[in-house]
């Protein structure tokens, strides 16, 4: 339930409020409440214009959790991780960040098939990238298994257009013992250098 509430976008909230206001306006018309008619029209038009604006801007991707975290930022915790640098025939030169508990929380949205989790909004990952001194992502991505169809790519996310190189993250499931709550977390972040 918590993940559902966190994934609600601002246009979805305004659409629900517009739906409610249309019933309120209909009630005003049926009962003939002339003193509330202007208020009802103003609220209805305000919500309608808000939806139209949000759907034509980048703000349509902003989720409820994004708004609340911006208005009420949580105390940032220091990430506990180790850095591994190396080179392999398959990947070339890479830098791997392996996170330890408590691992950074990531936000994902389940797709319509209920098989994969996609990162629609990269804001939760951008916090980690900023802490690591890496550039932020402009967009989210789908779970790699949903693209390749391979079971080996479950929990893997890949950005080939990341400026410093290829960015790959591995999602895990963590438990917050203080709240007895399970959440998606970042286990490993790998940056493969581009030649």
What does this structure look like?
- The chain is an alpha+beta fold.
- It has helices at residues 2-6, 10-31, 34-55, 64-71, 123-132, 144-148, and strands at residues 81-88, 92-99, 109-110, 117-118, 156-159, 165-176, 181-193.
- It contains six helices and seven strands.
- The protein has a five-stranded antiparallel sheet with strand order 1-2-7-6-5, with no helix packed on it. Strands 3-4 form a two-stranded antiparallel ribbon.
- β5 and β6 (165-176) form a beta hairpin.
- α2 (10-31) packs antiparallel against α3 (34-55).
- The mean pLDDT is 85.
Number of E-state strands: 7
- Counting DSSP H or I runs of 4 or more residues, the number of helices is 6
The general outline is elongated
Largest sheet: 5 strands, antiparallel
Spatial strand order of the main sheet: 1-2-7-6-5
Strand portion: 25-35%
Mean pLDDT: 85
Evaluate the radius of gyration: 22 Å
Secondary-structure element string: HHHHEEEEHHEEE
Structural class determined from secondary elements:
alpha+beta
Unreliable stretches (pLDDT < 50, length at least 5) are none
Helix content: 25-40%
Please summarize what this structure is.
Helix content is 37%, strand content 25%.
For the structure shown, list the relevant keywords:
single chain, 195 residues, 6 helices
Strand and helix map with partners:
Layout: H1 2-6, H2 10-31, H3 34-55, H4 64-71, E1 81-88, E2 92-99, E3 109-110, E4 117-118, H5 123-132, H6 144-148, E5 156-159, E6 165-176, E7 181-193
Antiparallel strand pairs: 1-2, 2-7, 3-4, 5-6, 6-7
Helix pairs in contact: 2-3
């Amino acid at each position: 339930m918590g993940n559902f509430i966190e994934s609600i976008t601002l246009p979805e909230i305004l659409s629900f409020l517009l739906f409610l206001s249309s019933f309120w306006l209909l009630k005003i018309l049926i009962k003939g409440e002339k003193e509330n008619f202007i208020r009802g029209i103003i609220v209805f038009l305000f919500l309608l214009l808000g939806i139209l604006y949000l759907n034509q801007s980048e703000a349509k991707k902003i989720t409820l959790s994004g708004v609340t975290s911006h208005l009420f930022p949580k105390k940032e915790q220091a990430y506990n991780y180790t850095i591994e640098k190396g080179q392999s025939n398959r990947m070339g030169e890479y830098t791997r960040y392996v996170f330890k508990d408590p691992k950074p929380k990531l936000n994902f949205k389940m797709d319509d098939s209920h098989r994969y989790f996609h990162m629609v909004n990269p804001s939760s990952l951008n916090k980690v990238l900023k802490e690591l001194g890496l550039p932020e992502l402009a967009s989210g991505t789908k779970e790699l298994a949903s693209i390749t169809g391979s079971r080996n790519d479950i929990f893997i996310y890949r950005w080939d257009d990341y400026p410093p190189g290829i960015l790959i993250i591995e999602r895990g499931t963590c438990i917050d013992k203080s709240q007895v709550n399970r959440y998606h977390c970042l286990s490993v972040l790998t940056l493969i250098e581009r030649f």
